[in-house]
Amino acid sequence: MQAYYIIGLMSGTSLDGIDLCYAQFYNNGTESYALLHGKTIEYTSEFQKQLRKANQCSALELMQLDTDLGIFFGEQIKLFIKENNIQQIDAIASHGHTIFHNPQHHLSTQIGSPAQIYAITGIKTIADFRSIDVALGGQGAPLVPIGDQQLFSNYSSCLNLGGIANISFDQQQKRIAYDICMCNMALNYLALKLGHSYDKNGNIASSGQINLKLLEDLNQFHYFSSEPPKSLGREQFDDWYLPLLENSSISVPDMMATTVEHIGMQIGKNIPKGNCLLTGGGVFNTSLINALKKHTQSTLEIPNNNLIEYKEALVFAYLGMLRLTNRKNTLSSVTGARRDSIGGCLYG
């Protein structure tokens, strides 16, 4: 039984930092994994500021940010390896950080130069997982569902509460998945208005009141009535959510409470019956979890903290392993592409 040892790196739309995990993958009749080490590295306020405004950069500025972020990733991975005395690594799988996601125009752009990661670590690096699927007419997202299907098949569905909430489940013997709505991207934006990077335990939301007018406006986003495959990016947050929040005259706690209720309602409509695995930073938001419980009859299962925090990094490590072994890692049933594909460019 051959085992593969991969470091996975994930930088999400919530901009809270990067998640690193070191995992072992092997097949003993089914795909199995061991999450050996994990770490979250917060972005500096300067990096957060640059990434938040990266979609407004000049071409030269964006390329410089791509290089700088790749150097940061490489240095953090090297430190992670040293801290944990990691001896065996077959590859690094880096999702990078999404700046543009517009599959309707055949593009999805992640930065964090994999060439720099390889140059700094000397370890084979896999990145750019989305481009092939987009070129094949797909959404290029979500990519995690093949990991959900193969590694977490004991759950009816898998829900990630990250910057964007997304879900995956089997339907008519096919895996389907899609982004549901904005999640921590919206909540962190509101928390920043009060000087916090996020709403710890959902305390701000719990202090506010739901505003029915704003709730109705948030629930009218045309995306919610469209059928999968579909995906969201910062573009939709800037074009739809941001004006509604910016133009509202209610208090920030009331906006937070209303947004949490909105997220709970939208997710509740999309969780199929059965047991649902919950992961992502939003799991630690008590107000959000209470809203979810209110709007679904499904059983919500919260795993240990390691899986909550590092599941997406783990799955990107798994996608890297599949790329390394020349096996499909992107499902057309999820993305709407013309066929399944093997995504990821190899450096080194």
**Count of domain modules:** 2
Tell me the name of the CATH class of the largest domain.
Answer: Alpha Beta
Cα Rg: 19 Å
The CATH topology of the largest domain comes to: Nucleotidyltransferase, domain 5
Unreliable stretches: none
CATH superfamily of the largest domain: ATPase, nucleotide binding domain
Quickly give the CATH architecture of the largest domain. 2-Layer Sandwich
User: How does the helix and strand content classify structurally?
Assistant: alpha/beta
Number of strands: 12
H-E string:
EEEHHEEHEHHEEEHHHHHEHEHHE
The level of helicity is 25-40%
Report the sheet with the most strands, covering strand number, pairing sense and barrel closure: 7 strands, mixed
> What percentage of the residues does DSSP assign to strands (E)?
15-25%
The general outline is globular
Number of helices: 13
Average of per-residue pLDDT values: 96
Write up what this structure looks like.
With 348 residues, the chain is an alpha/beta fold. It has two domains: 4-140 and 312-347, 2-Layer Sandwich (Nucleotidyltransferase, domain 5); 146-305, ATPase, nucleotide binding domain (Nucleotidyltransferase, domain 5, 2-Layer Sandwich). Helices cover 39% and strands 24% of the residues. The chain has 13 helices and twelve strands. The protein has helices at residues 45-52, 59-83, 114-121, 131-135, 145-151, 184-192, 203-206, 212-218, 234-246, 252-268, 286-295, 305-324, 332-335, and strands at 4-11, 17-27, 31-42, 91-102, 107-111, 125-127, 157-161, 164-171, 174-182, 275-279, 299-301, 345-347. Strands 1, 2, 3, 4, 5, 6 and 12 form a seven-stranded mixed sheet that branches. A five-stranded mixed sheet has the order 9-8-7-10-11. The longest helix has 25 residues, at 59-83. The protein is globular and about 55 Å long. The chain starts with a strand and ends with a strand.
